[in-house]
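Q: Entry one of two.
A:
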Amino acid sequence: MTHAPTHAPKRLLTRIIDVHSHAIFADLGAQAPMSDLPAWSPEQTLALMDAHGVAACVLSIPFAANFADGAQACDTARRVNERLAEIVQRHPSRFGAVASLPGRSVDGCLEEMAYALDVLKLDGVTTTTNIDGAYLGDARFNPWFAEMDRRGVTLFVHPIGNPAAGKVDLGLNPSLLEFMFDSTRMVANMVCSGAKRRFANIRMISTHGGGTVPYLATRLETLTQVFGNGEGRTPLSAEEIRAGLASFYYDITAATSPAQLYALRQLVPASQLLMGLDHPFMPAWTFQPAIDAAARWDGFSDGDLTAVAHGNAAQLYPALAHRIG
């Protein structure tokens, strides 16, 4: 007698916390490296969340205050953060938010961080991989990194094109290639400069699967032993380079293919991977395929899926997790 084949039940990601979701406020000036920003509203976002099993989103506008200097940048960051706090107050169990900072002003960053975290009670901080061409890990950022380290904040770092990238971007939108390379440069600079180890209490999220970091980890840890990790820097062993790369959290926005997930899992445990859908810059039709791809990857156990879907994010954003209940 022939028996029909049996199939394992379809696995699902449930109660997703999306750590990579952007707000857009049309009346607050430049907020991204593009002129035509997609439409956005909390109501539209909530509808998409409900359609795809997303329990909560962490809203961010990483670029918001990095295009201006002085009082203008500080004012933009303040208005963005107050607007984000209003959204969280209206929908406390559905949204978290991380604070934008005026990245070109050290004093402005310190002041806005205190206001956003202590008064507005936002869930963390966000910035870009480089600020006017200087990458995180540069000594000029040490004062506000020291404060983030003191507070033990979660820092969501989003890529942006380097000002010099226009010469080599092939005429392609920076999100296609340059964002991936910029995340790689940021992670490498944080590790090779020693900043990642000095500010180890900051829980840093590198987006889009870390760009090319998972594929270059062995190259970085090997060739730094041949060519060094930068002039004037304290030499780091291969083990220290690897540990630095493995100390980041990585969201898997647009990084759910088997090859990407396998490479990430060679670098970090599942406890350091997070779900991200990148609304509204990624089209809605990409959400369910990404969720399904993560759910069916056989490198994740059932427990891993729970962690990736919401458990890991709950550890990074405990106040949001408490509000969700």
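Q: Entry two of two.
A:
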Amino acid sequence: MSAIIIDGKKVAEAVKSGLRERIRLLAEKKIIPNLTVILVGEDPASRVYVSMKEKACDQLGLLSETVQLPDSVTQEALLNAIQELNRDASVHGILVQMPLPGHIDSRRVIETIDPKKDVDGFHPVNVGKLVAGTPSFVPCTPAGILELLTHYGYVPDGKHVVIVGRSNIVGKPLANLLIQKSATGNATVTVCHTHTKDLAVYTRQADILVAAAGRPKTITGEMVREGVVVIDVGMNRVDDPSAKRGYRLAGDVDFEPVSRKAAAITPVPGGVGPMTIVMLMKNTVQAAENLSKI
């Protein structure tokens, strides 16, 4: 079996095409969606992520601003910076880049963001709406995964979806989306994690398998059945002396053996990653429409 490669770049471009008309309509009313990112410290990976978001905004004609704060910033100063952006009518989306320094309470930070500008979808108000089936902003990676599955015709309805990972960013919100009575839901969902015994017992049952454990080769060829659809959320740096940078990016799935059994699979990079970025753009446009009452 030769697996279909689920191309996140291709699907992201399709989403961008749909957004351009919405952005044009906003521009006619002199509104340019504004995504402001707060970046604390000099973490190289965080800088790369912020740069990717800035580039995506530029490509679509969105405003992108970055508030740079030092590692030593106090929690009070960070919360004040967020409140200032909450009050700024020209800012439609606020994102605080994670991780934050150890002395900062990430939960307090998320709760301080205005839910109407919470384009990450992590505020408790938005999480509650998602669980209730009336989401305002859907977290970007789960939203991107559903977009990939829908685009390629792998509808979750009636399928057994196994999610490996229970983070607030991917595993939990994705499980909640998939069990909703909706066009992209109606799945039977099993969530596995680090305390799951005999993980392979569950992964072999999956019609659709989502690997979001944050560890390379968590899913091996022996752990999947023939014909499974595999979504690999992992983005891990693996040492590779032959690579130009001394490392390569790898997912949570052992790609070669799994792809020989799968019906379809996402690559790393180029699968889920581009979708996460474009769904952030979509949420920012939605925030601008909502705040402008369009």
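A: Comment on entry two: Residues 8-28 form the longest helix (21 residues). The chain has ten helices and eleven strands.
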